[in-house]
Design goal:
It is built from eleven helices and twelve strands. The chain is an alpha/beta fold. The strands form two sheets. A ten-stranded mixed beta sheet has the order 9-5-6-4-3-10-11-2-1-12, with helices on both faces. The N terminus is likely disordered.
Amino acid sequence: MRSINKKLNSGVCYSTKQGKYYLGSCEAVLQSAKLRKLKGKVKLIFTSPPFPLNRKKRYGNLVGEQYLKWLSNLALLFSDFLAPHGSIVIELGNAWTPGSPTVSTLPMEALLKFKQSANLHLCQEFICYNPARLPSPAQWVTVDRIRVKDAFTRIWWLSKTPYPDANNKRILVEYSKHMKKLLKDGKYNSGIRPSEHKIGKKSFCKNNGGAIPPNVLTVSNVSSKNPYLDFCRSKNIIPHPARMPVQIAEFFVKFLTKKNDIVLDPFGGSNVTGFASEELKRRWVSIELNRDYITSSLGRFSGNGFKVKENKRLTKIL
């Protein structure tokens, strides 16, 4: 397999009915003639960039002040591509101070830099909770036992306007057993609550087809049997080390876009965003600097029955 340290070519590695996956840095690809035509047309930029860690990881993250400057510059670039009522949804993981059992404020500083640089509005904060996450940071959690495990990341929803296109009716979840019973018999205590909210006699008697989900998204990404991992094993490819659960991408694509809207992921990785968009019939563009990650992402589509037109000059495993 070609090393990620080798000089890479650029261009479309593969395409599907709905989208294209580009090889190259997001800055270079977005400034290319082919992509400039998308300026002002992207409905959702959904991405998980390399996290603002205080130490280097093998997937190529920047650290400290370099990261802050880099991310703030990207905010301006991304904003140019965003439709007037489009959204940017960005995941930023937690960071710890090197050699110390204290939390770094770098992720929060990065968010503020990103927001301020492009004069964006912060629409809402989401928590992505993984109950199966391994105990970390190991030194403080499993060795010294002076901290509890870090089991969530933050996902931030931003936009140019306080009122981007969004509809929570698209992401309703099944009613709880208690709510189903309430809808059936219509019996509950109406009146003023301690919070001073007034609950009417028929406030909860209407069936809206499901419940409005919270901003805490609980997902577990531990399945060892799926088409992506099967493909990686068959091709002797190392899977992407920081894959986002497909359910998270599906949630935001449904919530913030409609059929045939354009979804962009500037840090495509294993192309969870592109795959979710393909399933939901949104047009998509993903970009990734690491050719091995792009090659591995082919398994998401071929393993689920989608037709892929591959540029083997760029994706072939040597």
